[in-house]
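Researcher: Good morning. I'm working through a list of sequences from a screen, and I'd like to move beyond sequence-only analysis. For each chain I'm collecting a predicted structure so we can compare shapes side by side. This is the next one on the list. No need for commentary yet; just the structure.
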Amino acid sequence: MNKENRAYVLPCEVVQDLLPLYHDQVVSDVTAAAVKTHLDTCQSCRTEYDALCVALPEQEKVESTGKKFKALVSKQKWKKLVAILLAVVLTAAAVTGAGAILSEWCVVPVPADVKDVCLIDTPAGKHIFICWLDTYSGITAASQHYDTADGENTLAVEHKHPILKWGNTNGFEKVQYWFLPVETNVDTVTFNGETVWTADEGIRAAPDYVYRLWELEQELHEAGGGLSGYGFEDDYVYLQFLDGHEEYWSYDGQQLDGPIARK
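Model: Good morning. C-alpha cells for this chain:
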C-alpha cells in the first residue's frame, strides 16, 4: 500500500484536537482523510464538528485561516528581530565590558626607571622617599607591601598600568614620587620586582628639597587641595606652594634663585 492510500485510525482525543485545523483546511491530505474517516464512524466527534461549523461558518473560514497565518508570520518575524537585537546588545556589552576591564585593570608593570631613594624623618615618622620616571599617560595604580624572607625585610613597591592605552601617549615622561612609611627596619627596596636599594648601600639622607616637598604635601592635605605643583627638571626641582610663592632646589639640596633656575 502506498502512502496516498494508507489509512490511519485516530482516537477521539486526537481528532477533537484536529477539528479546528480540519475545519480551516490547514492539515495535510493524509490527516484530512483520517479525520473524515473517523467522523463518518463516530457520532460524538461528528456532533462536535457540526457545532464547530456553526460557530465558524464557511465564509469565515478563509479569514480565520488567513489571520492565523499572518499572526504566525508576524510572531516569527518578531522573535527573529528580538533575537537579533539581543545579540547586538550582548555583543556591545561584551565589547564595552572587555574594553573597560582592559583599560582600567592595572596589571602591566611600569619599567623601573627609579631616580632617587632616600630616607626622611618626619613628624609622622620615618618615610622612604622614592621617585621614578613614569612613561605612561593615563590610569595607573601603585601599592606597597612588606615581604620577609631569609631574615630580610623587603619593602616592595608595585606600579602598574592597564593593558589598553586610550589616546596618544607617545613621548610622555614625568617624574612621579611617593613617601612610604617605614614600619620596620628595611633591608631591601624593590620597584616592580627590581631591587633599587639594599642596606649595604645605605639610604642616603634626604636633601632639603625632599623635606620641602613633604611640607607641600601636608599643606595640601590640611587645606583639602588647592593651586600648587611641582616639577622635576634636569638640573633642579620646582615647587609651588598654596600662597603662590615658588622655590627651586638643586638635587643636592641647595636652594636656587628662581629666574636663574628657569634659564
